[in-house]
Write a structure and sequence with these properties.
Elements lengths: L2 H5 L14 H9 L29 E3 L2 E2 L22 H14 L20 H5 L5 E5 L5 H9 L4 E6 L2 H14 L4 E5 L2 H8 L11 E7 L17 H10 E11 L2 H13 L3 E2 L30 H8 L5 E7 L7
Parallel strand pairs: 3-4, 3-6, 4-5, 6-7
Antiparallel strand pairs: 1-2, 7-9, 8-9
Helix pairs in contact: 3-6
Length: 329
């Protein structure tokens, strides 16, 4: 992201005055999405679900430090890890041509992939229409977003990815598929969503029908579990973002992360699990039992799920529905 783009959040499209009905939000929340795999992994060397800082945000001397010695995350525990962030010629040329069309820029915050807390972002204007919105956290190569966007051109799809080359990879998929209802943000979702949907925003709030968190980084070592993006605070953020009756869909192929996810959503205020107590895992070491949904037929088969299956791991789906929480709860 250039310094000019960091300083100015450009609104590039006009906003339609058409409202979004509750039925449209419900339909966007409940519809199943068929499988279409459009990923091009020929130059992919790392997994999705965990991002990495982009060179344009900070010049790094060592892991976790800038050239001035300051912590690039400013004390935050983040769910994404450092990795190579330079774009090859193929992606650099593509981003020069399509970034303005498909990537939403924003005023940069103090840390890597962070948005300024007072930033004003009119999300609906970025799409040029008010429509039910689907948000995917860590979209990988964009297979899920593209499949859904092709099947539902009447919806808006927003991908949040903290790793610069991951954003470029998704933009490449958007261009190949020829869809116009997908946008990307190079953003730490845990820090960014409370800003994008904060009370300070002057633009009309988009109606978010679903949030997807598919195969996030499991941070397998116990001492790293604190870095997992699915935690009580993030659950509160997702509930705040979702419209009444909206869905939070999660999936993982790591059993102890699945148990943790299930425990988080069971204890999060404002969520109802339609599958509470169902499909238990005999090895479950969590605080509850069951609570796992059948595999959602709207989720595409990505390389991450395929790797888990090939390794003999069970795939866990979780689906919870947002309900209003009164001030007293």
């Amino acid at each position: 992201m250039s310094s000019e783009n960091q300083d100015q959040a450009q609104v590039r499209h006009s906003t339609s005055s058409v409202g979004v009905s509750a039925d449209a939000v419900k339909a966007a929340s409940e519809d199943a999405l068929p499988v279409v795999d459009c990923a091009d992994d020929s130059q992919v060397t790392s997994d999705s679900g965990s991002g990495c800082e982009n060179d344009s945000h900070v010049i790094s001397a060592a892991d976790g430090e800038s050239i001035t010695g300051r912590n690039i995350h400013y004390g935050r525990i983040v769910s994404f890890s450092r990795r190579g962030s330079r774009l090859g010629d193929k992606y650099r040329d593509l981003m020069e041509q399509y970034r303005e069309q498909f990537v939403i820029d924003y005023p940069a915050g103090a840390a890597v992939a962070a948005i300024a807390p007072d930033a004003q972002i009119d999300l609906s204007a970025q799409f040029g229409t008010q429509a039910p919105m689907i948000i995917e956290v860590g979209p990988g190569s964009g297979e899920q977003l593209i499949s859904a966007a092709q099947q539902h051109p009447e919806w808006n799809f927003l991908g949040l990815e903290a790793w610069g080359p991951g954003v470029a990879r998704c933009v490449s998929a958007i261009v190949r598929a020829g869809v116009s209802n997908v946008r990307m943000m190079e953003l730490d979702a845990a820090q960014g969503l409370p800003v994008l949907f904060g009370a300070h925003q002057r633009a009309p709030r988009p109606q978010v029908a679903q949030v997807w968190t598919f195969f996030p980084d499991p941070w397998r070592k116990k001492r790293h579990h604190k870095r997992r993006i699915v935690n009580p605070e993030f659950a509160r953020t997702v509930h705040h973002v979702l419209a009444e009756g909206g869905s939070w869909r999660l999936a993982t192929d790591w059993s102890n992360y699945a148990w943790h996810m299930r425990d988080v959503v069971e204890e999060a205020p404002g969520f109802v699990n339609p599958y509470a107590g169902q499909n238990p895992d005999p090895a479950d070491e969590g605080r509850y039992r069951g609570g796992f949904a059948p595999r959602w037929d709207g989720r595409v088969m990505t390389r991450f799920e395929q790797r888990g299956l090939e390794a003999g791991r069970r795939i866990f789906d979780i689906h919870v529905v947002a309900q209003h929480v009164s001030d007293g709860e």
